[in-house]
Amino acid sequence: MKKFKFLVKYGLKKRVGRKAFLIANIVIALLMIIIVNIPAIISFFGGDDDLVENINIHVVNETQETNLVSDLSQLFNQPFEGYEFYVLSDLAVNQFDVEAFWVNSEVDITFHFTGDIESPDVKIYSKYPEMNPALMGQIELQIINYQIGDYTGPSFETIYAPDYEDPNQEMFISSITSLLVLPMFILITMATQFVGVDIIEEKSTKAIETVIASVPAKIHFLSKITASILFVIIQGLLIFTYGAIASLIGGVAAASPGLNLPTGGESLLAYLAEMMPNWPIIILFSLMFMLLGTLFYLVLAALFASMAVTQEDYQQFQSPLMLILVGGFYIGIFAPMAGGMGFLKVMAFIPIFTPIVAPIAFASGVLSIWESIIALLGLAVFLVLSLYMVAPVYKVAILSYDQTKFFSRIKGYFKKAFTKSKKV
């Protein structure tokens, strides 16, 4: 046990105490601050780029109130003190063409009033859907101003453009992928590189022979995995700290009167907390997927490192692992953006992609809680099987300096490992 603790402590200190670790964390901290505060940054630098001078509104009035258009125009433009920001004009029913409206760049919004003025039905055709709530409130206020005795609130129906895509949903998906996929990919990649490079350094310098002479191969294998997991925990806590600092910076910047940030420039974390009320359970599942997934990838990295002889050799051997990681990374980022939710759900149940893809699928609502638990159990079973398969091979390969071809070497090590197991 003392030797195991020594190996874990030595391996962890060797990685955390390096300048490369410090430099990498400075870069990660800066990236986290930028990513978390993207909305505020965009608002600060791009607030006036798309300034709208006027909103042209057509009103199709089928109610008995003849002054509706002029009354709405006066109410809408009341805050602008003489400037007519909302330009309202009357439009006959037979002149309104829905298809022509969407391609007409000179008209932004069309209101279609039907029924009685006491309780009108209002269809809103808008190229600026974000304005709809405010305009609905103004319309309702105008109906109240008529002081109708038998007043009933207007019924609104919003008609979206055929190619309309909800910007909030797009931002939500983009934010989820940025804050879940990117940190997980960075952590898992750093951990696999940690264990792989550590093993290959010992093996390429022949130091592994001295180590294995004093401790069993199984202890050596487990110490490398444990040190890597501790490294991931330390790095994960640091990333969480960077995120908290970034959110704090965003909050201070938004509250500072000197900066005068535009409205809507809140931090990305505040936006996500609003969009995802169940964020604690999402984080819990993400951490569990990441823990089991990192263990699985570390087992594979240790296996490939034990089979390699030199650093160049290891680069070739780790290619399949890196392809799996990059594949999961791109699936997690691009599948939600492309609307491939069915594909995302299928990939979430494939164990080699589950650690990265499943948290995104769960946060996006593609996976239910029970489906996420099933995916988690599947990953756990796959991890146990991989440990059972890899441990005997590691014992054989760690002291071997065979330099045959890639697939021949893998086949040979597996054959030797399980032949010995059967004899024992």
From TrEMBL:
Pfam (any one): ABC2_membrane_3
Main location: membrane
InterPro entries registered for this protein in UniProt: ABC2_TM
Entry GO CC: membrane
Cell compartment(s), UniProt: Membrane
Keyword Transmembrane (UniProt): yes
Alphabetical UniProt keywords: Membrane, Transmembrane, Transmembrane helix
Annotated TM spans: 21-45, 172-196, 229-259, 279-309, 321-340, 346-367, 374-394
Molecular function via GO: ABC-type transporter activity
Residue ranges occupied by any ABC-2 type transporter transmembrane domain in the UniProt entry: 19-385
Record keyword rRNA processing present: no
Recorded topology in the membrane: Multi-pass membrane protein
Name of the molecule in the record: ABC transporter permease
